[in-house]
Structures are given as C-alpha cells and as structure tokens.
Amino acid sequence: MASKLLQLQSKACQATKFVTQHGTTYYKQLLEQNSQYIQEPPTVETCNLLAKKLLYTRLASIPGRRDAFWKEVDYVKNLWKNRQDLKVEDAGIAALFGLECFAWFCAGEIVGRGFTFTGYYV
C-alpha cells in the first residue's frame, strides 16, 4: 500500500512539473484563440454585468418558448384528432420517441440508485 502511495505521489509531482512548465503557454494560446469572446475590460464588474444580462435575457425568452411549446401541443392534439389519417411512419416515430423517454427514465433511475439493478426483473 505504501509503494502505491509513493507511486501516486511521484506521478502527482510529475504532473505538477508539467503544468508549471507548459501551463502558461497553453493559457496564452487559449486566450489568443478565443479573444473574440473576451469582454473588455476583463474585470469582476464586467463578469457580474454579463451574468445579469444572461439571466434576464433567458427570462425574457420564456414567453417565446412557452408559445412554441403550446404550438407543439396544438399540433399533437390535431394529429390525435385526425389519427385515422396517420401514416405508419408517424406512428413508428411516436412509438420510438415514447420508448426513448422510457429508456431515459430507466437510466435515470439506475443512476439515482448508484448504478444498481435492484428491483427490476432482468
């Protein structure tokens, strides 16, 4: 156990040395490549202002997203009213979508339980 700890410590030291030697070069290169996204002056106040702009812009977009949601709901209601005209392809897509939602639900349940499969008959 002590030998593994020493190996881990030596690898951590090597990683630290690599970062100290090459970190600033990588940092400068990253900033140069993405300079179009940097807001001048780069201060805490500017960051706070941008965060507020993002929050209120997203809040302002809620009515548009709500309207788009209700348009989708109306479309589904219209499809359900005219279900006798529904094609096999549309029904297949709807079935696959429902299956995908169920699969994501099951995956979420498994992840929530810590990746255990208890409670399901497999």
Automatic annotation (TrEMBL):
Domain of life of the organism encoding this protein: Eukaryota
A GO-annotated cellular component: proton-transporting ATP synthase complex
Localization in the cell: Mitochondrion membrane
Molecular-function GO terms, alphabetical: proton transmembrane transporter activity
Gene Ontology biological-process entries: proton motive force-driven ATP synthesis
A Pfam family per the record: ATP-synt_G
Keywords annotated in UniProt: ATP synthesis, CF(0), Hydrogen ion transport, Ion transport, Membrane, Mitochondrion, Transport
PANTHER family listed in its UniProt record: ATP SYNTHASE SUBUNIT (PTHR12386)
Similarity section: Belongs to the ATPase g subunit family.
Protein name: Mitochondrial ATP synthase subunit G protein
Taxonomic source organism: Dipteronia dyeriana
